[in-house]
Amino acid sequence: MRMGPPCEVCLDAEETIGHVLLRCPTAVQCWRLASALLPPMWESVEDMLRFLSESIRRPSVAETCSIVAYLAYHIWLARNDRLFEGGWPTPRAMMERALRQVAETSTMATSAPPGRTRDIWGTYTAVLASRFSYFSWVPPSPGYLKVNFDGGMAEDDASGGVVFVIKDHRGTFIAAGGRSTLGGSAVGAELQAAWEGVSFVRRVLGAIDSFSRMTVLQ
Questions:
Q1: By Cβ atoms counted within 10 A, which residue in 111, 125, 140, 173 is the most buried?
Q2: What CA–CA distance (Å, rounded) separates 95 from 100?
Q3: 62-80 and 45-55 helices cross at what angle (nearest 10)?
Q4: Taxonomically, which superkingdom (predicted)?
């Protein structure tokens, strides 16, 4: 008995996270196009996450980790595009978008002042977000900041994660953060992600306001 919806590409396979990211023919072709830059293919999403976890603090493979993370990200974005927008990006387009974001991340990591992008709550490293959106991003009004956030849970609902990215009305990157969570629901993770982002903005604006008052007093 089928336990979940079918894959939009394969039709005869259950659409699990592992299938979408690793076993669907579209995903397989994406990984194959980037294979010269990557280690051998993984058997499961858990294996891929283990590779990222073990390698992320090794400078020699930092770029490889970025390629893996962004390629998986764009494979999932393409799935959402097919499902909700009726789009059908090619594997090569997905791979090229991922590599462009890797290059942009590398540039921002070397040029952004330290401390602007980090995990606010723990020891995990936050990943720099792209300045560009390949679907849509509506800027806030001048003088305001926009907090984009997301949260989700693993298939077993035992763990999850929340992330946020903050930009101004020009699309200028301000900060990003994220952390792992334990238990809860997907809706709860989304709400927690929203709260973490808004709370960070309040702390930043509070700090700026306090600094301004100190400057006046001096």
A1: 173
A2: 9
A3: 140
A4: Eukaryota
pLDDT band at 120 (very low <50, low <70, confident <90, very high): very low
Q: At what angle do helices 62-80 and 91-111 cross, to 10 degrees?
A: 130
For 21-48, how does the pLDDT look when each residue is reduced to its tens digit (9 = 90+)? 999 999 999 999 998 888 887 888 888 8
- Contact, 110 vs 62, CB < 8 A? no
In angstroms, the CA 177 to CA 203 distance is 13
Tokens read off for 84: 């909700």
pLDDT band of 50, cuts 50, 70, 90: confident
Cα(195)–Cα(31) distance, integer angstroms: 35
* Strand boundaries in the chain, DSSP class E: 145-153, 159-168, 173-182
Tokens encoding 54: 């073990």
Task: Report the C-alpha gap between 37 and 136 in whole angstroms.
Answer: 29
**CA distance to 37, 70, 81, 149, 188, per residue, from 26 (Å):** 18, 15, 13, 27, 31
Single-letter amino acid code for the residue at 124: Y
φ, ψ of residue 57 in degrees (nearest 5): -100, 10
What confidence score (pLDDT) does residue 66 get? Answer: 87
Q: How far is CA 109 from CA 78, 112, 155, 169, in A?
A: 26, 6, 32, 22
Tell me the DSSP string of 162-181. EEEEEEETT--EEEEEEEEE
